[in-house]
Amino acid sequence: MLNTTAASQRETLAALDLSWLEPQLMRRHGFDAARAARAVRHYRCFLEIAADHPERPVAPPAGADKAWHVHMLYNERYNEFCRTVFGTILHHDPEAFGTPAFAQAWEFTRAQFAERMNVALPGLDGAAPSDADLRAEQCWLAERSSAAVTDPDLQAEQCWVVARDVRH
């Protein structure tokens, strides 16, 4: 069950127009319109998970991470958004990748995406992806499912949102 704060955050997130990120993803990352829209949907899901579980780190899939990066480029807008929705800035931690804590965060994120969006994110237990998008950004995992999810936007990224202190 969501606490009052999480429910309020979810309402704010549901009403928030993030569609402005789509043309930015198209321009900055070469996404087509459908891919950009999906990345923004995944970003919104990632944000909802962070709102519902402030005590847990959450690791975004690659497409959501690209949307998150674009959002952060507009730092005034991003900071205002975070303060409005979360009461604090969601910090990006690129140093967590490869740690047991990152693996736990990714497994939690996978379970949440499956439950919320019926999206199967790959595990961290197979070969590195061959997708040039991921190699160029060096955001590939040394361990990934050999069941080869070919969609680069569903791969784990090398970062996560840091758990937040929810005591007020």
Q: Could you characterize the architecture of this molecule?
A:
The protein is mainly alpha-helical and 168 residues long. It has one domain. The chain is 53% helix and 2% strand. The chain contains 7 helices and 2 strands, in the order H-H-H-H-H-E-H-H-E. The protein has helices at residues 4-15, 21-29, 33-52, 62-73, 75-86, 100-117, 132-137, and strands spanning 92-93, 160-161. A two-stranded antiparallel sheet has the order 1-2. The chain is globular.
Strand content: under 5%
Mean pLDDT: 78
Q: Which value, in Å, is the CA radius of gyration?
A: 15 Å
Number of DSSP strand runs: 2
Helix content: 40-55%
Q: Biggest sheet: strands side by side, in what order?
A: 1-2
Shape: globular
Poorly predicted residue ranges: 127-149
Structurally, the number of domains stands at 1
The helix-and-strand class reads mainly alpha
Q: Total helix count?
A: 7
Give the N-to-C terminal Cα separation.
20 Å
Largest sheet data: 2 strands, antiparallel
Encode the helix/strand succession as letters.
Answer: HHHHHEHHE
